[in-house]
C-alpha cells in the first residue's frame, strides 16, 4: 500500500505492485472502525461550519457538477452534498485550512493548482510539507468544532488524501481507491494556531476537486 516516508517527501509506492492496490480483506474489516458514524459527522460538521465562516470563508453546499466533488477559491469552499457525511466534514475543514494557509503564506498559492505528474523531487517534498501545515490548520478547526477526540480520524484521512495524490501524480493512468490508502496508525496531526483577524484572500482561479473512488 502506498505510504509516505515521514523522513522524506517521497512515497514507498512500488511500481511492481500496481496491480495489487486493493487492501486485503482483514484490513478492510479493520477499516470499518476508522470512520466517523454519520450522526457524529453531521454533529461536528454543524459546529465546524460557523467556525469556518468566522474566518471569512463562505460555505457553499450543493450538488457539484459532474467531475467535481467540491471547490476552494480562497474565500469560499464548495461541499458536495451527495457525499457521505464524513467526507463532507473532511472537505469542509480541509478546504478551509487551505484557504487559511494561502492567506498566511502567499507564496504557497502556487500549490493551489498543482499539475498532476509535475511535482517531483524537492518540489514534491515542499508540497508534502505544505499539506502537513494545511492538516495542522484543519486540526485546529476540528478542535474548535468540538472534535478533539477525532484527531486520529483526521490524521488518517489527511494521510490517505496525500498518499492518494502522490500515487495519482506518479501513475495518472491508474484509478485509485481512496479507501486503499487508509492506514491503522497514522502520524497524528498536531493543531497549529490560526492568527486572529485572519483575512481570507480570493485566488485568481477556482480549484475544482476531482472525485476519487
Question: How would you summarize this macromolecular structure in one to three sentences?
Answer:
The chain is α+β, with helices and mostly antiparallel strands. The chain contains five helices and four strands. It has helices at residues 25-31, 38-54, 85-104, 121-144, 151-170; strands at residues 58-62, 70-72, 76-80, 207-208.
Estimated structural class:
alpha+beta
Query: How far from one another are the termini?
Result: 16 Å
Can you tell me the overall shape? globular
Question: How many alpha or pi helices?
Answer: 5
Strand and helix order: HHEEEHHHE
Adjacency order of strands in the biggest sheet: 1-3-2-4
Count of spatially separate domains: 1
Describe the structure.
- This protein has one domain.
- The protein contains 5 helices and 4 strands.
- The protein has helices at 25-31, 38-54, 85-104, 121-144, 151-170; strands spanning 58-62, 70-72, 76-80, 207-208.
- A 4-stranded mixed sheet has the order 1-3-2-4.
What are the main properties of this structure?
disordered N terminus, 4-stranded mixed beta sheet, 41% helix, 213 residues, alpha+beta, 5 helices
Helices and strands, with pairings:
Blueprint: H1 25-31, H2 38-54, E1 58-62, E2 70-72, E3 76-80, H3 85-104, H4 121-144, H5 151-170, E4 207-208
Parallel strand pairs: 1-3
Antiparallel strand pairs: 2-3, 2-4
